[in-house]
Amino acid sequence: MTSVVIVDDQDLVRNGLRLIIGSEPDLEVVGEATDGRAERELITALDPDVVLMDVQMPGEDGLTATRRLVQDDVRARILVLTTFDLDEYVYDALTAGASGFLLKDMPGEEICAAVRQAARGADVLLAPAVTRRLVERFARPGARSPTIHPGLARLTDRELEVLRLMATGLANHEIAARLYIGETTVKTHVARIFTKLDVRDRVQAVIIAHESGVVTGPD
């Protein structure tokens, strides 16, 4: 059973998410909080698998709360929820340590699928529009000065190639088809990339790829 904590200041949103998640036999909402400060003790006590975190809340906002939870090295994977797909929210949420960025108007089945994937530490789904805007943000000339991550020097040529394809949004099976290798081999490369870059999921590896200039555009 995958345990979930919902952090959102709107009763309607929390109730809706509780109904959506609670209707799934393998998912369970174990706690709720109304702002970023209230969730700290709750998450420590409940140790959930996944946290659904709103961005805009009174008191401590979701981005600050996400950054703090990651710094505290909590086990839970954090999926940021918002009604907005603005660039600054996407970038700030992911660099804060979120494992995914989902829009509140996404279909319930997609939200549940993302929760399951986050709990497994697998490829977390981002809203397609969000992924596209994130890539376009980094693709703009002069958008950001490259910040080279020291772990990149430890990657083999093949691992760097896999990282580039990951950063353009390809899933493991798509990378396997592109490189004419098995999907199991791709998963091995991805695991080694995570270790060498000292990240815990795909999203953080992709952020490093874009910040370091490994990928300069969607192609």
Automatic annotation (TrEMBL):
Keywords, sorted A to Z: DNA-binding, Phosphoprotein, Transcription, Transcription regulation
InterPro entries from the UniProt entry: CheY-like_superfamily, NreC/VraR/RcsB-like_REC, Sig_transdc_resp-reg_C-effctor, Sig_transdc_resp-reg_receiver, Tscrpt_reg_LuxR_C, WalR-like
GO molecular function: DNA binding
Lineage: superkingdom: Bacteria
Pfam families on file: GerE, Response_reg
PANTHER family, alphabetized: TRANSCRIPTIONAL REGULATORY PROTEIN NARL-RELATED, TWO-COMPONENT RESPONSE REGULATOR
Protein name in UniProt: Response regulator transcription factor
